[in-house]
Each structure stands twice: as structure tokens, then as C-alpha cells.
Amino acid sequence: MSAGIAELTPAEIDGLLHEQLVGRIGCHADGHTYVVPVIYAYDGEAVYVASTAGRKVRMMRERPHVCFEVDEYAGRGSWRSVILQGIYEELEGEDAARALRLLAARFPPPADGEPVRRRAESGGEVVCFRIRLVEATGRAVDRGA
Amino acid sequence: MSAGIAELTPAEIDGLLHEQLVGRIGCHADGHTYVVPVIYAYDGEAVYVASTAGRKVRMMRERPHVCFEVDEYAGRGSWRSVILQGIYEELEGEDAARALRLLAARFPPPADGEPVRRRAESGGEVVCFRIRLVEATGRAVDRGA
Q1: What angle do CA A132, A108, B3 make, to 5 degrees?
Q2: Yes or no, beta carbons of A22 and B68 under 8 Å apart
Q3: B127 to chain A nearest CA, in Å?
Q4: CB contact under 8 A, B67 and A26
Q5: Which of A20, A60, A84, B51 could cross-link A70 (Cys pair, CB 3.0–4.6 Å)?
Q6: Where does the pLDDT of residue B5 fall: very low under 50, low under 70, confident under 90, or very high at 90 and above?
Q7: Residues of A in contact with B30 (CB under 8 A)
Q8: What pTM was estimated for this model as a whole?
Q9: ipTM higher than the 0.95 cut
């Protein structure tokens, strides 16, 4: 038995990005690299996130070339992952509204109907942004049985 | 209903790092930020990884200040995550052997008894390394019911 490593096809990369709910943004500024998990939506061209205007937003404003990663662990050391390089773009107006609709569609409506925008995080200004896909690679590692 | 964000205590950070099996390394070199998932072990002082000598190892050799992240999604937008800053240190001899034992202890023995070292990834030189913990922060986001 040895591990088989396969490159994912563009369709498989697209599929994993549609399936997953949590991804991680990698950004770098002021000599620090930072990896932070986010809930995201994906439309084939970009991933969409609503977040408070904290450290990661400050870092991406400073250096908009970022990395985005999703993975799915299948047990016994087998998994699939996608790593993409993209460009951080802040959204406003109708673009931000569309991002919030894409995100809302990933969750069942809350019992009290409070909009996603308000629930995005407690306190602080909410920033909607996308990471526009520039390049993506995907790998599957199958340890087999 | 609104999200509650809490800082994890040092004991909770330690607990999440012990519980999780997959983490993500964030590294940066030559103007690129890279986030890559890894299976790891943790002993309270560092996370331990065995990997082929690919892109992430080249990047960490060049710039050993890296980020390491774990998260646990609990559904309905609630989660816990730990983000740590650490130093990449390559391991050899008894240090590498100990890292492989820590990793092996996280998996049941394979049916054919092939050692973890061989199974780490197909092809290429296997590098054992640790990311020595310098600073860690953890957050819990509870969307509540």
C-alpha cells in the first residue's frame, strides 16, 4: 500500500469549492503570515465572504494577493484539497448585496429572521469582499485500503 | 440572536490543538502566500509534520516564521479556531524518529504494517519538521440558538 496523489481536474476543483462551507484565507503583511478560517460562498469566479473589519481585512487591503484553501478529510489519511491564488476585492452596494444573498443561500433562514448581514459577526463594521480566482490547483491523496 | 465571540483560554487552545488531526500551514516566500493542509501531531510545545520536500518545505526553509491554523466547525455558523505563530525547524535523527512516533500514535496501525515514514507521501524525500509554538490565539464563535 502506498499513497496515491492525483491532481484534481478543473471540474473537481470547482465541485470541491461549491461543496465546502469553511475555507481559510492566507494573507501576509508587515512580515507576518496569517491564516484565518471563513465561511464563504462560491460562484465559479470568486469566493465571497462577510466579515468584521479586523486584522485580516487590514492585511488584505495592504496586500490584496492572497491564498484561499479548502480541504475535505476522508479518514485514514485520505483527503482532497484546493489551494487558490486570488485577488482581494472589497464589495459595496449591489455587489455586496449579491454576496450576502449568496452567503444566505448556504444557510437555512434563522428562526427569528435576522438578516445574515447583522449576524455576520458581533460588533464592528461588516466588510463584504470577494477573492477573485486567479489560479487554482487541487490534489487528492488516497491512502487506499 | 447575535454572535458571541469569545477568546479561548490557554487550556482550551491546548485542547483544540490536541483534538484536531488536520491543520493548515501558512507560509510566505517570493511574494507568494501559500496555505497547505497537513496531518499533524502536537505535544504542547510544537506541531509535528512529515511531508515530501515540496513547495511548502522550500518556502519554510527560506522564511521559517510561519502560521499554523486549526478549526472545528460546529454547524449553524458556530466554530472554534486556533491561530498560532511559530518557527519552522527541520528534524533529523532521534528528533525525527520521535515526530514519526507522535504521528503514528494518531493513526491505527495499517493492515500491512507499512511504517508511517514510508506512507507519509508517495515519491520524493520525506522531511520531518516541527513548528515551534511562539504565540497562539483562539476564538470561539457561538451563533447560539
Answers
A1: 80
A2: no
A3: 16
A4: yes
A5: A20
A6: confident
A7: none
A8: 0.88
A9: no
